[in-house]
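Supplementary Methods, section 5.1.

A reviewer requested that the exact input to the structure prediction be made available. We therefore reproduce it here, unchanged from the version used in the analyses.
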Amino acid sequence: MRFVSFETQGKASYGLWKDEHSWLNAPAAFLAQYPDLKSVIAANQLDALEAAAVQSGETVRASDARLLPVIANPGKVFCVGLNYKSHVAEMKRADSEHPAIFTRFADSLSAHGAALPKPAATQRFDFEGELAVIIGQGGRNISQADAWDHIAGYACFNDGTARDWQRHTHQWTPGKNFPATGPLGPFMATRKAIPDVNQLTLESRLNGQVMQHASVADLIFTLPVIIEYLSGFTNLSPGDVIATGTPGGVGDKREPAVYMHAGDVIEVEITGLGTLRNVVTDAGI
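The structure derived from this sequence is encoded token-by-token as follows.
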């Protein structure tokens, strides 16, 4: 199952992703009970949503709608830094005993196909293709053995980063939270649709050139470890998003460095999760 959030005729909605050009809308009665995809996840009603949308058959054309981040209103957005050996090596960092965690604000997210605004305050706007995990069942102190049961699904993510702002201090938050710099989508595939994340391959392309290519199996801290760690200090809630880290190949560590500029096309493709595509613009944010 693949689920999508979008806006049509000025109203937020959600439903099933058919393909790049059309989606099945959730029926009005379903929308009245569950106003967004996060609430569907919280109520454990993804199967019911699929059945209702298929039965209704109401098709929404992409040309008549606008995609939203697949989870448009997450309560928390966690990001894991330095979680591939190849990225640790290019950043010249030592191994860590625990995951490096930072956070994003919900308004820093954007959607597949949306303009990716290069902040006016930086000339070092970088890409980071990542696998995102969407929490289904919430909880605290979740064990690694139980972690899979708390995952609703997965999506592509691009952790667009203002590298200079990231390094103003040892805290990375400023460089990671310019508005709309974190595309998430195009859809969420459910956990049962992706039975083994270790079989997934992640690839980032800038203007068609492959910049990052790695197996999700190369994660240093696995998804169960990340979920156990996060839930050890905070409550995880349905719809929370966890960006699990980027592999080596980021623009900042290339020689010469490669950054994103207006007109560039950045794509993040993950096996079974589609291709997240955005065009960079000068938005002056």
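The longest strand covers residues 11-19. These observations are discussed further in the main text.
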